[in-house]
Amino acid sequence: MLATRRHARTAAFLFAVSAPAPVFAYMAPDIGLGALGAALGVTASLLLVLISLAWYPLRRLNRRMRVRTIRPAASDAGTG
Description:
- The chain is an all-alpha fold.
- The protein has 2 helices and no strands.
- The chain has helices spanning 2-18, 29-70.
- The radius of gyration is 31 Å and the shape is elongated.
């Protein structure tokens, strides 16, 4: 019974501390647009990282495949 009350008090305290307090402040439109721009910039940079991680290995693989198809076989080099 005592442990249950202690857990209830601890839970109530943690809830009261973690609950956001209302803030009555004016946020200008330029601050909101700046935050939006920063969020979009971070998202775009992460997207570019993912694209580059896939693009360059595929490009290298494409070059290797092209070199294999263009280079003539050793048996065909002397004829012609």
